[in-house]
Amino acid sequence: MTIYLPIAELPVNIFTLLALGGAVGFISGMFGVGGGFLMTPLLIFLGVPPAVAVASVSTHMAASSFSGTLSYMRRGLVDVPLALVLLAGGLTGTLCGVLTFMVLRRFGQLDLVIAITYIALLGTVGTLMLAESLRALLREWRGQKAQVKRPGAHPWFLRMPFKMRFRQSRIYVSAIPVVTIGFSIGFLGALMGIGGGFLLVPALIYLLRVPTVTSIATALMLTLVTMIAAIVMHAVLNQTVDAVLGLVLMVGGTIGTQFGARAGQTMKAERLRLLLGLLVLAVGIRVAVDQIVRPTDLYTVKIDEAAR
Amino acid sequence: MRRLAALVLILLALPGAAMAGDLVLSLSKSRITITSSFAGESIVLFGVIEAGDAGDDGQPYDVVVTVRGPNESFVTWRKERRFGLWVNVDSRSFLAAPSYLAVLSNREPSLMAPADILRQEQAGFVNNRLLQRVGSDFADVVPEDPFRQAFLRVKQAQGLYIENAAGVEFLAPHVFRAAFPIPGTAPIGTYEVVVKTFAGGAPVSRGAVRLDVGKVDFEQAVATAAQDHPWFYGLVTAFGALAVGFVANVAFRRD
Predict the structure, then answer these.
(1) pLDDT tens, residue by residue, B49-63
(2) Looking at beta carbons, which residues of chain B come within 8 Å of A250?
(3) What is the pTM of this model?
(4) Is A67 on the interface with B (CB under 8 A)?
(5) ipTM score of the complex?
(6) CATH class entry, domain B2-214
(7) Interface test with B, best of A61, A304, A305, A308 (most B CBs within 10 A)
(8) What is the tally of helices (H) and strands (E) in chain B?
(9) Do A66 and B246 make contact, defined as CB atoms within 8 angstroms?
């Protein structure tokens, strides 16, 4: 059964879209990532114009993350103050990212910069997560006890001034690294067209030492706010938000998120991190392969947006 | 012969029929309406070449039908290997190229008339003018230009450019029919259907009809709202997203 998308201006199979939304929603709920880094390329593969794909995915991510945030909030797992401090840096970062985006586009090398950023970022984050979680699993298999966090063993950047206490996360750290992390996520998110959840979760876990579940819950809330802002910005500036496409993805996505969140809670934190690491690394390798292997057609045709 | 006369009469009576000199044309539908279940449609063009005109000295007629969608500017990029990565290096801008192009004929257009006449008449797939930006000037280039060939190849692969040298079927010596598909991804706007006839290697007549492709009902309402009231549209979409998220959360609530 096909459905015509009024803004993307093409017909697609409604069940393909529902399945896509459900699968990405499952991953999204399980790891607390927005899923944009998976959904956007898949929609482009279906023939949706990139600008419409990026904008419409944000509606799906808003719905998924709201549903997930409510679940975590009811269990009291979201660290709201931490999310607000991160957001302060995040929104500034988004603005800087959008400006950089414009400059790069003027020089005509945006695609290359995005691809290289993807490879470098996904490759590094994926490898680090994989190595860390494997070490943890190995320790467990050998029957060793996990290292106990010693007080005062904080790295230098957490001991900077403007210290704040985040009760839910059980950390007492300087606000400077928190705002910096928020800024970096916002900057990269705007530049790469992603929510940034897959970067935020490891950053919170490894840099700020926030417990895994709290990291996931807080990242979801941050994604929610960012995506609401993105929907309105895309609708006003580009008119590329396809409400029909968004709605179908949402319905599949929110259902998937519920099951994903439940699956995530029954799993061990190390296994969860191992799986997310594998996923991130796989996407990074995929992007790298696309850039390295000789394309079947060296030519591509794009609509000249500047001439419109 | 009586049946043929009846067909001509029917064609003349049809609302979408157009008379251009000695060519009578009619589309099976003069307006394609895009609804939520739209997945492409096939349009049939009927044409009658009125007999007894100049140039008709017993030679069989040749017909070239060209359907052009609304113009759009495109950029064709070429990738090259740089530091192990395939990156866009070179590009050409195609200005005001048709977003949809179907060229149908009863046989290879190159057999119908000398090449210069065909080029002048833009009859045949490769003879359509595609303006490129060359420095500060605009010009079409030779058909062998790799960027031009790549542009046609990519658009054909997308199903938006169609070449069919057997797409025009003669029902009688002066009556023909041509069917062309409008895919689901076809851009909206006014399409121009131009018919050119040749006989004995020379152009005989030309005619044109228009075809509208437009959204209706819900699709139209959504597209208009997104264009005319972007703030309202954005906020409603954002609110809708929250509502779906909330409903899903409540529906799946366990505790």
Answers:
(1) 886 554 445 678 888
(2) 241, 244-245
(3) 0.73
(4) yes
(5) 0.77
(6) mainly beta
(7) A304
(8) 5, 15
(9) yes
